[in-house]
Design a protein that fits this description.
The longest helix is centred in the C-terminal third of the chain and has 19 residues, at 352-370. It is built from 14 helices and 12 strands. The strands form 3 sheets. The protein has a 7-stranded antiparallel β-sheet, sandwiched between helices. The chain has a 3-stranded antiparallel β-sheet with strand order 4-8-5. A two-stranded antiparallel sheet has the order 6-7. The protein starts with a helix and ends with a helix. The protein is an alpha+beta fold. Helix 1 (2-15) runs antiparallel to helix 13 and helix 8 (199-206) crosses helix 9.
């Protein structure tokens, strides 16, 4: 029954509003020592493919990659292979001699490294890797005009920046001497039994055609051959890693796996995941930082106008993805909502999701909380 209710919220709030052709949502609430969960879907894979969205439908997660990468970094810090205070140039050769050489990894993760929000990197040619080292150097030198000199003790004023995560991803690869794909699998996905991964990962799991059939297309981009399906939407992630993943984007997954990831972070905060991350290690990621709501790998709930909507509390944290994805976690209520859409199909110019997302999140929060009382009670007391 709860599945139908979630589906109705998605149908009304996302599909019928024109915000996206389809959606999948996972909700969870912690109750009496266990997680209660439900999932619902609505709509189709795209306006050109009437295949219904199913719980196993895979979406391009876009910037939901960032909190996963931040948790992988936290795991390396736990193992003393890394430290959040480590200067970037110490572990990433391409950053040596750049403006960001002495910037602590924490400030990259918390968007306080003084970097520009975005740079356009050169496209890959015929699927061949480009000048990744040169691109890393460009990112490390992309300081904002008002952020010259040494990094202040609490970092520069926060500005959300993909560049910091591009550099953080490069730093992590340098530390472990292998790629982000296997690192994220080793430190996050395997310990938590999550099915999250790059296009290359999913092609290995399902076969290339099997992956294409299960993944929702993102945008129609003529310069990249038409509808992007089974390849990352983010141009810089495509340039840097192709079918792999970069530090800022490149993961694909289902709503359930995104939700299970959020549950693991909440469990860690509650001291229930000591084998993965301790409460203090998890708090480092989500604690408020000065100057704004951005945290390390996550965002906090803004005082007004937050996409989380009105039901999530002041201590809620989460993240959005450009393709139309989101995860919000409330550590006080111990409730979470993962919402996946492909709002960029057929074009990124469709921004209707921005206006409907707070209300959809609010309704889904309510359905998550209702899991604690059960369908029989909801039928007797529908108000």
């Amino acid at each position: 029954m709860i599945h139908d209710e979630i589906g109705e919220v998605l149908k009304r709030g996302v599909v019928f509003s024109g915000a996206a052709p389809g959606a999948s949502a996972f909700v969870a609430a912690f109750h009496e020592g266990q997680w209660l969960t439900a999932i619902g879907v609505a709509g189709a894979l795209s306006s050109q493919d009437a295949t219904p969205v199913r719980p196993e439908t895979i979406y391009d997660l876009a910037s939901l990659t960032k909190p996963v990468v931040a948790c992988a970094a936290a795991r390396l810090c736990r193992q003393r292979a890394l430290d959040w205070a480590t200067p970037l140039g110490t572990v990433l050769r391409a950053a040596q001699g750049t403006a960001s050489e002495n910037t602590a990894l924490e400030f990259l993760a918390a968007h306080r490294a003084g970097l520009e929000a975005h740079l356009t990197l050169t496209e890959r040619v015929d699927g061949l890797a480009g000048n990744v080292g040169g691109w890393m150097m460009r990112c490390a030198n992309a300081r904002r005009a008002d952020c010259s000199g040494g990094v202040p003790g609490a970092g520069f004023a926060p500005v959300y920046s993909d560049l910091g995560y591009i550099l953080l991803g490069g730093a992590l690869e340098s530390v472990v001497s292998f790629g982000l794909d296997p690192l994220v699998q080793r430190e996050v996905c395997v310990p938590l039994s999550l099915q999250l991964g790059s296009a290359a990962y999913w092609a290995t799991q399902l076969g290339s055609e099997g992956f294409r059939q299960r993944v929702a297309p993102s945008e129609v981009v003529p310069e990249r051959g038409g509808a992007l399906r089974g390849v990352v939407h983010d141009d810089n992630a495509w340039a840097l890693a192709g079918y792999g993943m970069a530090g800022h984007a490149g993961l694909f997954g289902t709503a359930a796996s995104v939700g299970l990831f959020g549950m693991a972070v909440l469990d860690a905060l509650g001291g229930r995941r000591e084998g993965w991350l301790s409460a203090s290690e998890a708090r480092f990621l989500v604690r408020p930082r000065p100057g704004g709501s951005l945290r390390a790998g996550f965002d906090g709930k803004a005082d007004s106008g937050s996409s989380a909507g009105p039901r999530f509390g002041a201590h809620a944290f989460g993240h959005l993805g450009f393709t139309g994805t989101s995860l919000w976690c409330d550590p006080d209520a111990e409730v979470l909502v993962a919402l996946l859409t492909n709002r960029v199909f057929p074009t990124r110019d469709n921004i209707r999701l921005r206006s409907v997302r707070p209300d959809v999140h609010g309704e889904l929060f309510g359905l998550a909380a209702d899991l604690r009382v059960g369908p029989e009670v909801r039928q007797k007391h529908p108000g």
